[in-house]
Amino acid sequence: MDLQNIQQTLLPRLLKLNFGTEIFKELEKKQHILVKGVVGSASSLLVAEYFLALQNNILYVTDDKENAHYLTTEMEDLLGKENVLYFPSTYLEPYQIEKTQNANLVLRTEVINRLNTNYSPKVIVTHYSALSEKVLKEDDFKNISLNISVGDLLDFDFSEKLLNDFHFNLTDFVSEPGEFAVRGGIIDVFSYSNEKPYRISFFGNEVENIKTFDIETQLSIDKTDSFQLVSNMNFSIQKNKISFLELLPKNSIIFSINAHHGLMQIKNFYAKAEENFAKLNHEIKHQTPKELYISEDEFLDNLSKLQWIDFSNQNIEANEQKKEIVNLIQQPQPTFHKNFEMLMEDFEEKKKNNFEIWISFSSEKQKERLEEMFTSLKQNYNDTDNQPIFQAFKSELHEGFIDFKNKIAVYTDHQI
After folding, report:
1. What is the pLDDT of residue 90?
2. CA 20 to 30 Å from 367, out of 28, 38, 109, 326?
3. What is the pLDDT of residues 205-221, one digit of tens each?
4. Which residues contact residue 99 at a Cβ distance below 8 angstroms, ignoring those fewer than 6 apart?
């Protein structure tokens, strides 16, 4: 039997066990829940449960870029890629334009475009540094956007619009966001709202078809009926910007990991922005840190207006009257260093205490290897029970955990 994925196995089981119910019940009464004792990938499973139950937009915030990548992979595995977005930072350092990460600017633009144009709920994964940068208001974002659909009539001065209004660069072949190329009745354009460029074919001045294409091979990938052409939102216009939290729909909920640590990151980033701003040549007008970046106080004020669950053992002193503390009893997956006898002893102990044991595998082959190992080891324990000692599933979970209330142990094969 093929190894089933986590959506078909562990996730339904946790929903049946009412995993995390004590948290979500408190959320009906309080706006801010501090959850202590959460371990490993349990936080992602709780976020997935909440999303499936209520179908609200979720902002899932973690400490840094590396952990955000892990969480994005976990959430895509749990909910499907179509329900998950990643919101990165643009700058490695404030006011250092040469350190702008163009690929990240595209991902940020895609998230903001989805929030403004697509009303289906999403889980948006990010990290605190990415929230330090302010974004355009919805109306200002629309001013640098243009929807292009099959059947639209576009004048021949469309290329002039790209040059002058959208500040795109005319090239022979597009290779990065902000470029376009013209060949006869075809315009290739790399919008900041998508990771692939678009090829627009015209019949006269009518848009005949639109396809994404690969910049290396120049071959078409997918056909689409329309797309959103978006300029560089960081440099196209000088407008008042807002915190990304203010852009979220009102019924959104924030799940954060170690918000106390994240608050320090935001504070330090803002201080660095002030320091770098002071060094700029002020004969040229620059936007101030207050206009471009979010301060610690502003971040806390934004949080106070949304429902918020923080997975942390350290409290942020804010919204005391709206806060509730929930304690979970969890432990990390033990370290076995491929000592399978130690693993078997652990499983036997769990079995005596009526724990369910689940193991996440990256492949069917890994599962078969472990099953063969256990078949041999069971003889040493005089274990005549023919029932499987663990339940297997395929997933990208990063870290295992043991939950004592629900008597369930979730392990990952790469930690064994």
Report:
1. 86
2. 38
3. 899 999 999 998 888 89
4. 91, 92, 93
| Single-letter residue type at 193 | S
Q: Give the 3-state secondary structure percentages of the chain, helix then strand then coil, rounded to 5.
A: 35, 25, 40
- Output b/e per residue, 307-325; b: 16+ Cβ within 10 A: bbbbbbeeebebeeeebbe
Mean pLDDT of 208-235: 89
What angle, 0 to 180 degrees and rounded to 10, lies between the N-to-C axes of helices 364-378 and 340-352? Answer: 80
Is pLDDT at 384 greater than 70 in this prediction? no
**DSSP β-bridge partners for residue 308:** 32, 254
- Residue where the block lists tokens 């206009």: 291
Q: State pTM to two decimals.
A: 0.88
The overall average pLDDT reported for the chain is: 88
**Cβ–Cβ < 8 Å for 226, 216:** no
| Nearest of 23, 29, 32, 24 to residue 307 by alpha carbon | 32
- Contact assessment for residue 196 and residue 183, using Cβ atoms and an 8 Å cutoff: no
Q: Which letter does DSSP use for residue 173 in this model?
A: S
Structure-block tokens of residue 243:
């915190």
Q: So what's the pLDDT on residue 163?
A: 73
